[in-house]
Amino acid sequence: KKVAVQGDVLMESTEKPMSQSAVIVESIAPAPAPKLTLAEVRAKLDGKTGKRYWKNLDELAATPAFHALMEEEFPKQSMGGVGEWLDSTSRRGFLKVMGASFALAGLAGCTKQPDEPIYPYVKQPEDLILGKPMFFATAHPFPTGAIPVLVKSDAFRPIKIEGNPEHPASKGKSDAITQATLLGLYDPDRSQHVVHRGNTTDFSAFQSAFVSNMAAKKGSGAGVYFLSQTITSPTLAGQWKQVQAAYPQARLVQYDAVNRDAAMTASKAVFGDFVDAQYKLEDADVILSLDADFLSGIAHPGFLTLAAAYAARHRYEEGKTMNRLYVVESMATVTGFKAEHRLGLKPSDLAAFAQALVSGTGVGNPAAQKFAAAVLADLKKNAGRCVVIPGEQAPASVHAAAHLLNAQFGNVGKTVVYTETVNPLPSIQSDDLKALVADMAAGKVEWLVVLGGNPLYDAPADLNFQALYAKVPNTVHLGMYVDETAEASQWHINQAHYLESWSDARTYDGTLTVIQPMIEPLYGGKTSHQLLQILLDAPGLSAMTAVANTAKPYTKDELGWRKALHSGWVDGTAFTPKAVTAKGTALPATSPAGGVEISFRPDTGLYDGRFANIGWLQETPRQVTNLSWDNAALMSLETMAALKLEETDVVELKLNGRTVKAPVLMVPGHPDNSITVHLGSGHRTGGRVSDGVGFNAYLIRTSDAPLSAANVQIKKVDTGYAICVTKVHNIEHRGDFAQHDLEKKESDKEGVYSLAGHEAMERSIIRYATLDEVKKNPNFAHEEGA
Fold first, then answer.
1. Quick check: 11 pLDDT over 80?
2. What is the strand order of the sheet 157-163 is part of?
3. What percent of the chain has pLDDT over 70?
4. Under DSSP, is residue 11 helix (H, G, I), strand (E, B) or coil?
5. How many CB atoms lie within 10 A of CB 559?
6. Contact yes or no for 383/409 (Cβ under 8 A)
7. Taken in order 642, 647, 652, 653, is the CA torsion positive or negative?
8. What distance in Å separates the CA atoms of residue 266 and residue 257, rounded to the nearest whole number?
9. DSSP-assigned letters across all residues of 219-285
10. Which pLDDT value is given to residue 95?
11. pLDDT digits (tens, 9 = 90+) for 289-319
12. Tell me, what's the pLDDT at 249?
């Protein structure tokens, strides 16, 4: 075995770092058993800091037991003998043995390049040059499509993530969640061991138990189930097909709490097949968003591409037509606030609005009726140069309406194209999960292997997943944290971070993008590729080889493979548009109506909860609300007044007999008679950052109403809650008053005054004009007093 000793952990008494070089020591022969164990070394050094390291290490190194331990780790036959290492007159030897003791004590954060070859983005240096970073291309795998990135690596440690400037899907852009994943790599709360029934073990023990049990099921696979997060990796999909060929009755279930079921249901109904829509906003003069927050983050497929295309067309240039954006939404969003025309509707009204656009019938709400008439007129006027985009959290009826409207206005093949899905194994995930639960209840599930998810935290509350999971004879959880599912599993396997792994994934446009490791797994973590591969005829096949085999039809040879690693993607793999025909009609409205409605949304920072232990994302103010370290029941000022609530109150939300408590927060522009809650908070376990932060909205979310529900009951139960909002709702300035009015009392002023509103209006730090005004005076923003 090899021990890598990184020099930057060696400290002089002045506490300045010394040499960055690494010393690699390889033992080739066993030695007698030491009298001192590694556990005892760690115990002696536990909690010691600063200069006290040297005092205690000196004392430790002087003991015969430590000498014996060093002799076993560095035997005399290796590198000139152990005597040189322990020679008290040799400073070099002293530093070596101190570095060794640090490594053995678990205090050295030493890493090195993976054994497999990876290739720098620009040029591979012949040797490491300290202070000169290298850049490697990889991708952040995400359910809506991979995000291509460049990773800056210093001394073989990833230190910064940015977008890949040459990738056709992102063109150098990235997002907050992707950049924050670097902090997840170094999260000290990550799972570090394989655990069996509460006891630490190793992966070989699991592999032996799993493979021996599967041997009896070869050719059948009855009772074996895999529960995976959404798959975007062609290689992983290929491995599963091989597993299913060997175990025909084994079952794979994909489930993410935030999924694309609405989009998949609509495409199947309208086109007869699962397809993805790609929107060409660079060619659209008029855009209608039906609850599609495509400018806010990667929760919406193709966010980076869509945001860049929208911004390019929305920038005013003389002689160029600006695009125009209409937004109808059930929650105030970044996209809604960017729109020229915005309408807020509660979920059931939004579904009815979308269907009314298709049928041409009236909308009950007078304001919505006027809005619908104006939108339809503009879409007809710009037929073939307009586009309708449905939101990911909008119901299937809204997606179906968008498909039919795009077909009706001749947009297909122009501003919208349809392709095969980013997920190579598309399905309706909620239906698959229900089938799995039914089999669990019937006792048909003998082995349930969870690949990366946390269903005991985020499964629909009505499925009783936790109780049924406990009845499965053999449960396995692959995950990065010892979370709710890991604690309840018989086997927990620590998962490798994507920056430590080989894999691949499809981006929004379908481009096959390579995921290559930036660092050797810090805790020896495993991947889904490895768990599936051990069931195949070549259990030792590496993930790198499997990924290379998937790309081989395109890369052809070793040179093509190196080019793919260098660039970060495989040329010629983007999806080509499919010819589709709208065979179906508008789907019936699926958003339940009645009373106060509740809408469930992924958090703009934590998503579905998988990033909840990254403190930077918890700290970052949420879009629109500026809320940090919490989630809340979001509602309009009018709804709060009707319920007699204040922003310091805590309410109990009751839905179908299930309850959860949440603080109240007012959101300007939120539709009346509805509330919005964000998912991803309220973890019970899984990390020191996430535990106990916010409330768990999954506790009232059911499988029959995963997007929105009607008749939620709201009752005030407490007050005085200190909600953390970094910016209050004070950008308001109504009424006329001069600058000297600043000295007057608030009650003496006409209208409503706020400092932010005064700065914006009186000092003109915000300058605006209509398009017609800009055409008359393009230089308006640079004129004094504008």
1. no
2. 134-140, 147-154, 157-163
3. 77
4. strand
5. 9
6. yes
7. positive
8. 18
9. TT-TTEEEEEPPP--HHHHHHHHHHHHHSTT-EEEE--SS--HHHHHHHHHHHSS--EEEE-GGG-S
10. 44
11. 999 999 999 999 999 999 999 999 998 887 7
12. 95
> Closest Cα to residue 531, out of 227, 249, 255?
227
Cα dihedral angle (578, 583, 585, 591), rounded to 10 degrees? Answer: -50
SS3 344: strand
Residue identified by tokens 């059911």 is: 702
CA 561 vs. chain centroid, Å, equals 28
User: Are the C-beta atoms of 198 and 625 separated by less than 8 Å?
Assistant: no
Q: What contacts 585, CB < 8 A, 6 or more positions away?
A: 404
- Alpha-carbon Rg for the chain in angstroms: 29
Q: Work out the angle between the directed axes of helices 347-359 and 396-408 (0-180°, nearest 10).
A: 30
Beta strand 251-254 pairing with 276-279: unpaired
Q: Is the separation of the CB atoms in 66 and 13 below 8 Å?
A: no
The number of C-alpha atoms within 13 Å of 61 and in the hemisphere containing its C-beta is 21
Residue with tokens 């194994």: 425
Report which DSSP code applies to 384.
Answer: T
- CA end-to-end span of the chain, whole Å? 72
For 658-672, what is the HEC assignment? EEEEEEEEECCCCCC
Instruction: Report how far residue 469's alpha carbon sits from residue 474's, in angstroms, rounded to the nearest whole number.
Output: 9
How would DSSP label each residue in 165-229?
TT-TTTTT---HHHHHHHHHHT-TTS--SEEETTEEE-HHHHHHHHHHHHHTTTTT-TTEEEEEP
Helices 91-104 and 64-73 cross at an angle (nearest 10°) of 80
Q: Please list, in sequence order, all residues whose beta carbon lies within 8 angstroms of the beta carbon of residue 493, skipping any fewer than 6 positions away.
A: 194, 203, 206, 476, 477, 478, 479, 526, 531
Nearest to 515 by CA among 218, 148, 32, 86: 148
pLDDT in tens, 713-768: 999 999 999 888 886 655 444 444 333 343 444 444 444 455 555 666 666 667 77
Q: Is the dihedral of CA 70, 71, 75, 79 positive or negative?
A: positive
- Contacts with 159 (C-beta within 8 Å, 6 or more apart), sequence order: 133, 152, 153, 182
507 to 44, 168, 229, 261, 550: CA distances (angstroms):
50, 9, 17, 19, 16
Backbone angles phi and psi of 737, in degrees to 5: -155, 150
Q: What angle do CA 265, 270, 273 make, to 5 degrees?
A: 65
Residue 637's Cβ-count burial label (10 Å; 0-12, 13-18, 19+) is: middle
- Pair of tokens at residue 717: 């139960």
Q: Check: CB of residue 100 under 8 Å from CB of residue 25.
A: yes
139-150 residues labelled b (16+ CB within 10 A) or e (exposed): bbbbbbbbbbbb
Length of the chain: 786
Type of residue at 732: E
Q: With 70 as the cut, is the pLDDT of residue 214 above it?
A: yes
Contact 530, 540 (CB under 8 A): no
Answer yes or no: are the C-beta atoms of 522 and 292 closer than 8 Å: no
Query: How does strand 324-329 pair with strand 416-419?
Result: unpaired
Q: Is residue 493 within 8 Å of residue 203, measured between CB atoms?
A: yes
Distance CA 526, CA 61 (A): 35
The Cα–Cα gap between 510 and 571 comes to 11
* CA dihedral sign, ordered 703, 396, 378, 774: positive
Token output for 482: 């010892």
What is the C-alpha to C-alpha distance for residues 391 and 667, in angstroms, rounded to an integer? Answer: 20
Place of tokens 């349809």: 418
Alpha-carbon distance 52 to 107, whole Å?
14
What's the chain's average pLDDT? 83
The closest of 89, 69, 86 to 27, measured between CA atoms, is 69
